Amino acid sequence: MTHPLPPVPVPASGPVDVSPISMTPSADTDLDPIWKSVVPESRTRSNDIHLPISLAYAERLCAAHPDADALLVRVAILLHDTGWGRVDEDRIISEGFSGDWRRAEIRFEHERQGCLIAREVLPPLGFDPAFVEDVVAIIDGHDTRKEAKSLEDALVRDADRLWRFDHAGIALASGWFGMDPATYCDRLAAEIVPELLTEAAVAMATADLERSNALLKTTVLR
Predict the structure, then answer these.
(1) Structural domains of the chain ordered from first start
(2) Which of 27, 93, 126, 143 is deepest in the core (most CB within 10 A)?
(3) DSSP for the chain?
């Protein structure tokens, strides 16, 4: 079940954890059957790093927003980028991370494929049709749609962006965009922080970016 999106940035009503994300990996095993069903799709574009870290951020955001449907957020973030596993891998970097990358056709394609994957893997695992369609509605447009449709949609979008601020995300994504880490950190501060929809995500991103800048010596390695 989705909840209307309040005015942004959405304030937190629960605790906001800004410690390193490695301190709170996802410990629950209830989603393991879904993970097992998308192992092939997790091997493309470093999804096997991106998706688990994004899930950990999503669970922190759900703690900060206890009114949200946590299961919906967790399942949607787990599946949101699996569609990259079913597109032309040679086009992912050349088209999806260069030029007007937000409007690249391959980004729409990976969203469509992600929706198909959700409809394939969730019903056999016992998820009801209404829940599946809520998941699909979040996956569809998570990169290309300008607005979030619900609180749950907003939390998935923020979790998808937050992983970029951790040093692991910076190490991977800076290469995808052809940037050195310092330049990529500058981009995170200038472009991605303003896109975040919740106050909790802004606090997490700010703390992570400060740590990553210090760890990666971006003041001198530029």
Answers:
(1) 32-215 (1.10.3210.10)
(2) 143
(3) ---PPPSSSBPPSS----S-GGGS-----TTHHHHHHTTGGGGSTTHHHHHHHHHHHHHHHHHH-TTS-HHHHHHHHHHTTGGGGGS-HHHHHHHHTSSSGGG-HHHHHHHHHHHHHHHHHTGGGT--HHHHHHHHHHHTTTTT-SS--SHHHHHHHHHHHHGGGSHHHHHHHHHHTT--HHHHHHHIIIIIGGG--BHHHHHHHHHHHHHHHHHTTTTT--
